[in-house]
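User: Um, what's this?
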Amino acid sequence: MYNRRFPFHHTPASGKRLDFIRIMIAIIAEKPSVGQDIARVVGATEKKDGYCIGNGYMVTWALGHLVSLALPGTYGYTKTAADDLPMIPEPFRLVARQIKTAKGMVTDITANKQLRTIDEVFSKCDSIIVATDAGREGELIFRWIYDYLGYTKPFQRLWISSLTDEAIREGMENLRDGSDYDSLYAAADSRAKADWLVGMNASRALAIASGSANSSIGRVQTPTLAMICARFKENRNFVSTPYWQLHITLKQGEAHRQFVHPEEFKDKETAGTAYGKITSGSVATVTKVERKRTFQQAPLLYDLTTLQKDCNIHYDLTADKTLSIAQALYEKKLISYPRTGSRYIPEDVMAHIPSLLEKVVAMPDFKEYGDILDFSGLNTRSVDNAKVTDHHALIITGIAPQELSEAESAVYTLIAGRMLESLSPPCEKESLVMECTCEGMDFRSRSSTIISPGWRDVFRRKEDRDKDEPEGNEGSAEFAEGEKIMVMGHGLAQKKTMPKPLYTEATLLAAMELCGKHITDEQAREAIKDSGIGTPATRAAIITTLVGRDYIARSGKSVVPTEKGMLVYEAVKDMRVADVELTGSWEKALAQIEGHTLDTETFMRSIRDYTGKATGEILRLSLQAMPGKFFTCPKCKTGKIIIRSKVAKCDHDGCGLLVFRKFLNKELTDQHLEQLLSSGSTKLIKGFKGKKGVSFDAAVTFDEGFNLKLSFPKPKSGKGK
C-alpha cells in the first residue's frame, strides 16, 4: 500500500510486496547526521556515497550552504577600484560554495561532489521532501540548491523542532506544501542579496579609503562594533566624581539596623555639615514601617541568546563555542533545535513536559530539588502558543546523555536546570522598608527575606542571593512606627561614581538583543523589539568576524576595540550603516515580505539606492592608514616587521623574510601573524583542507629557512605509558 502523506511502502497481509508501485521520493536534510537519522526512521537503510536509499525513499543532505551568491569577480569586478562601485549584479548568480586558497577563491571540491549527488537523487525521484532546518536560513539552503540545479519538481516541507524519532514520524505524517514557505524564502533571499550589496560595496569602499584589504562593513557587524567602541570610549573617558553618604545606626537589644540618608552629598563640606548635626544625644523617630510580600517570577525557558549569555557568565564560554556545543547536543538528539529565538513552548509540547522533568530530577544535580517539586502545580508562564516563532524554546528531549565532554555536560545541565527553574513556583520574599527622621533629615532602611525560594532552589547561586539586598542588609533590628530610638552611632561614607562597565560577551549579546528599543521609527522598533540586531544564530558569528577583522579583541572577560576598530568606528559612526535603525528598517521590510504585504522588488530597489549613497559616503572619507604592529624580525634579529593587508615583511635590506597571509586554503588573520612572529608558531588553526577535501587542524610555524609549514599537535599518551 502507498500512503500519500507518509509514503512508506507497506507489505500486505499476503506477505507479497506490491512492486508495481515504483514512486521514489527524495528527502534532503541540512547535514549528513540529520539525513541519516531521517533515513533510519523512514526505512532508507541502504547507505550509498552521499545518500541513503530504501522503502521508496532516497535521503540525501546538504553540507550547510552548498550554494551561495557569486563573488564580485564572477561579474567582472576583479579589482578593488572606485570606478567599479557600486557593484549591482543584474541578475545575481548562484555558484557552488567557494573557498579561499593561495590561488584565490576556488570551488569547494567537497561541495561540488555533494551537489552532483543531490542532482542524481533528485533526478531519480518524483517529488522532494525538504528537511533542512526549519527556519529562514534552512529554507534558503534548499531553495538555492533547487534553483542552482534547475529543478521544478514538486516539494513538501518537513517542519520539526527536534530530531527524536517521534518528532520525525509526527512531522512526516503532517508534511506541509512547499509553497506555504515561498514568502519565507523570499525574505531570506532578499536579506542575502541586500547583505551582499551593502557589505561587498561598503567593504571595498572602506578598503580603498583606508588602504587595508582586511576591512569590512556590514549592517549588523558595524552597529555591533559601534556599540563596543562607544562603550569603551565612555568607560575610558569617564571622570569619576566623589560623593558622600550619611548613615545612622539604631539599636534594639543586641540587634541593630543601619539607616541611610537618601541624598548623596556632592561636596564634602555639605556632607560634613549634615554629619555634624547628629550628636550622641540625637534621637530618631520611626515614621514608616512597611512589610510587603513580593514574588520573583521564574525565568522563561532558554532561547539561544540567553543560553549563550549564561554560558559566558557561569562557564566563560564564548557565544560561538556555546552554539557549537548546543548544535552537537542537538545532533546527538539530546536537546531541541538550538538556533531558536523563542523562550516559549506550545501547549502540545507542555503535555510532554512532566515526563521530561522526571528525567531531569533523576540527574545527580537535581535529585534533591526533585523531592520537593510539586508536579501537579507546574508553572506555565513559558507556555504560550502565540509567542512560539519558527521553533519553540530550548528543552531536553528525554534521551539519556552518554559520553559527553565536560563542556557538553555543563551546557546540557544548564538547559535541563532552566526547565526546572521555569516550571517551578515563583520565589516568595518579604520586603521590609523602614523610614525615620533625625535632626530634620530623612533616613531609610530596606531589606528582604526569602520566605520560599521556589525556582531559586534549583541552582542556589550565590550571585542571586547577593542581588536581594539593593541597599545592603545592615543589621536585623525591627522597630514600630512612631517609636523613638537613641542614635547609637553615625558615619559618613565617601564613595565615587563608576562608569558603565566594558562589555563582556554576555552583556554584548544582551545589548545586541535589546538595542532596538532606542530606534525612533515605531514600526522598525516593533520589528526588532524582541530580536534586536542579528539573530540568535548569527550573533556569535558576528562577534567572531569582528575578532577576525582585528576590530575587537577579548581582554579577560571584556570585549574591547582594537586601534583599527576605533579608526573604522570614528570614520563611520555617523553613517546609517553604523546605526541599528538600518537593521530595524530591514527587519520591518523582511517581516512584510514574509507577511505578503511588501514585494521583493520594492525592497531591493530601496537597497540598491541606499548602497549607492553609502558607497559614495565611504569613498569620500579621509582615513589615515590602518595601524600595523611592529615585531623584531625572527630571521635577521635586526629589522622590523610590519603586518600589512596581504603580507608581513622585514624592512631590513638583505633579510628577505616575507610571509603571505594566504597559506594553503586559509587566510592568516592579524592575530595568527602576531602569534607567529612573536613566538614562532600560531595556535591551532581549524579547517585546513587536505587533497581529498578532508578537514584537519594544525598550527603554522617556520621551518629552518623561515618558510611556513604545518605543525600538528602531539597525540596524547595512553594510560600506563
